[in-house]
Amino acid sequence: MAVIQVYSHAIQQKYKASVCSKATFFQLCVFILTVVPPLIFAYKSQGFWLKLSSYVEQPDIRFKYQLLVILDTADDYLAWSTFQNFNSLQQSHIRIPLVKSREEDVNRDGKKDLLHFSLEMPVTDTEDIFALQLLLFFDYRLYKFSEFTMESMAYVHHSAMQSGAEYSTDGHLILVQRQPLAHRGVDSRYNNTSIDQESIFAEAYDFKRIFKEYNSRNVTTRYDADYSVWVRGRGSGMPFTITITVRYPEESVTYTPGFWQVMKDAWIQYLAVLIIFVLVFDRIKKYVFKNQLVTTIVDRRVKPHDT
Amino acid sequence: MGIPGIVPARFLTLIAHLVITWIIFWSRGDNILACLPQSYSQDEYNRKDMQLVVGLSVSLGLIAVELVGFFTGISMFMPTVALVSIASHASGSIALAYFIFDVWDCDLYWWVFSFCSCTPALLEISTAFAVIVLKKGL
């Protein structure tokens, strides 16, 4: 009749020795050789300690309804802003435009996805616009890891050889990081305004100073517009129009991982190499102890006559 | 006589160590450059070269001593000596393989030499002394 194996179990064999013996010394050496080399291997093959990681999040961007616009004519300039003190300083250069803006949440996820902005500056027929500089201010927030809040800026500028009727541009407000963000906590280092609204001095509205301070930050935004159109030939009586679409894209944010994430990652790498060493040295130990290369007391759990 | 495979294991690790030491003998250039500063003189190079050559030659000599002791059967059937010899020569071969591939500093050779060449050779010599002179283990 055919015979099959129905069951099996291991019989444990113990090897005992005194504390000061060759066997104990051998076991200690093998233990160190099993535990330490995987750490060395995992470390020397790079990437053991996770220093940088990234996550993807769509930031919560809101237009603050603050702007500053300067248009250059042939020998003069026109300016306007939402800052009262700046407007007072400009005196005769002030021209009040018609500003329309609307933020749209395309995918209805609660976060705005783009800003439609248009500015119509009334100009006389003799005033030819050759250049424009426009600052738009946004409130920028990230929530997933650290609660990051900052004031961000979009700088739109263009200069042309011919006078224009309209400037239209479509671009993205992208995050520029010079330093990874934290993995938790509240981060509002850059939540201060680039322009001090209360200031009555012209330096507060000097673009050079604003840009220098803004660029000194470690986290900023940049308006990235490759697609801009300068339309020439303004009809008589028509205003100079600026049409801007600012899109708020989903960003890949780099951050410094926290302690436990680093530990988890390191442990996985260590364990993966450790298992190989454990298996190899287990075979070696079995050979050594079974053949009594080091003398021990052999203690069989199950005696041959036991059931 | 009863331990299966221990004699071949000892022989193989000894030969592996011998072969790899011989290979380092012929390809030691990169290792010497690794332990010299960026700008070095020919004298410094020759000095380091001489040191490494001496180390390698002594290592080859010690392996030869051990082979003699092994083949003449003095320590062929002693488990402890076999264990120490296998462990030293195996770890020595692995370390010297890293020495070649990772282009280690030539000064690191002395560590490998002391632990993996001197230890088994000294053990072999003392075993030979114990067996021949003191008549133990016969």
UniProtKB/TrEMBL annotation, chain A:
The chain crosses the membrane at residues 23-43, 267-284. It comes from the Eukaryota. The keyword Kinase does not apply. It is found in: Cell projection, Cilium membrane. Keywords: Cell membrane, Cell projection, Cilium, Glycoprotein, Membrane, Transmembrane, Transmembrane helix. Pfam families: TM231. The keyword Membrane applies. It is a multi-pass membrane protein. PANTHER family: CHST5 PROTEIN, TRANSMEMBRANE PROTEIN 231. Transmembrane component of the tectonic-like complex, a complex localized at the transition zone of primary cilia and acting as a barrier that prevents diffusion of transmembrane proteins between the cilia and plasma membranes. Required for ciliogenesis and sonic hedgehog/SHH signaling. Belongs to the TMEM231 family. This is Transmembrane protein 231. It comes from Priapulus caudatus (Priapulid worm). The gene is LOC106814997.
Automatic annotation (TrEMBL), chain B:
The chain crosses the membrane at residues 7-27, 52-74, 81-101, 108-134. Keywords: Cilium biogenesis/degradation, Membrane, Transmembrane, Transmembrane helix. It is found in: Membrane. The keyword Hydrolase does not apply. Its main location: membrane. The keyword Membrane applies. Pfam families: TMEM107 (PF14995). It is a multi-pass membrane protein. InterPro entries: TMEM107. This is Transmembrane protein 107. It comes from Priapulus caudatus (Priapulid worm). The gene is LOC106804918.
